TrEMBL record:
Transmembrane segments: 17-37, 49-69, 89-113, 150-170
Protein's organism: Flavobacterium soyae
Protein name as annotated: Sterol desaturase family protein
Pfam families from the UniProt entry: FA_hydroxylase
Location in or out of the cell: Endomembrane system
Keywords from the named record: Lipid metabolism, Membrane, Oxidoreductase, Transmembrane, Transmembrane helix
Record-annotated Fatty acid hydroxylase domain positions: 97-233
The keyword Transmembrane helix is assigned to this record: yes
Keyword GTP-binding recorded: no
């Protein structure tokens, strides 16, 4: 465990980039070999759009990184945050609690709020417009949303009182898990269901990308599935009923053109359907 802490305390940017690129490459190969759906789409064009948003997310996080570093340093120096107030415990338990807290505030909470506040939904909807969910979808976030999510990540660090090594560890795990649960891969149903008790499995997260409510407003988890089960936002749906996208933007010229995707947050909002019969 000490080796892990030491590594993530000073993880080079090149290694973080390798985790991102390596994860996409790995799951890209797997989903081509064991696909959940045989989707007929221009995969490289689709990937190009999502990779553009991946790059903008990296740029936003790089520019604002000093905020995370300052926040993590302040919490440890001033003994502030939940982790700082806990009694002494084994480092592995301390790490698990820290990761759970970061996942709750920096991932689940912001995701839930983005679906409930119209202004934030305007930016998050770009992620949901994807009608061909694969591993590249994981990083399909409007630059405006990248800023919003970053601020909630900083809030999570403040509340948790987590050191910077734990933040880097969480972010690295988050990248891999998000690529995994968005990937167009077919796991045995029993295995996927078993995994969903602990982590956000592919089938569990795919329900979140079904095109109509209430499914869109469910399964908000990022790494750990406990939050959806605890707060009553967990929903299941058979794989054969899945239709990807969001009902307000189902036309290709709306969901598959980069220029329009960048403009969506500033366009007139549209009302979504709300039915369990879709």
């Amino acid at each position: 465990m000490n080796e892990i802490i030491s590594y993530f305390s000073s993880i080079p940017s090149s290694h973080r980039s390798l985790i991102l690129v390596g994860g996409i490459t790995l799951f890209w190969v797997i989903e081509n070999t064991f696909p959940l759906f045989q989707m007929q789409y221009k995969k490289w064009h689709h990937a190009g759009i999502n990779i553009f948003f991946t790059i903008t997310t990296i740029i936003v996080n790089f520019i604002l990184a000093f905020i995370l570093i300052k926040t993590a340093s302040w919490t440890t120096e001033n003994n502030f945050g939940i982790l700082q107030w806990l009694p002494e415990m084994p480092i592995w338990l301390y790490t698990i609690i820290g990761l759970l807290l970061l996942d709750l505030v920096g991932a689940y909470l912001v995701h839930f709020i983005e679906h409930k506040i119209k202004f934030l939904w305007r930016f998050h909807i770009i992620h949901h417009t994807d009608t061909w969910i694969d591993t590249t979808t994981a990083n399909r976030h409007h630059p405006g949303e990248s800023v919003i999510r970053f601020l909630f990540t900083a809030l999570g660090v403040l509340i948790a009182g987590s050191p910077m090594w734990m933040v880097f560890l969480y972010q690295s795990l988050s990248v891999i898990f998000s690529q995994f649960n968005h990937a167009n891969i077919s796991l045995p149903d029993k295995l996927d269901f078993f995994l969903s008790y602990f982590i956000v499995s592919p089938n569990m997260h795919k329900v979140h990308h079904h095109y109509v409510l209430p499914y869109t407003d469910s399964n908000y988890g990022n790494i750990f599935s406990v939050w959806d089960r605890l707060f009553g936002t967990y929903i299941t749906l058979s794989k054969d009923k899945l239709v990807y996208g969001v009902d307000t933007h189902m036309l290709p010229e709306e969901n598959n053109q980069l220029k329009n995707l960048l403009q969506i947050p500033f366009q007139k909002s549209r009302s979504a359907k709300n039915t369990k019969n879709q």
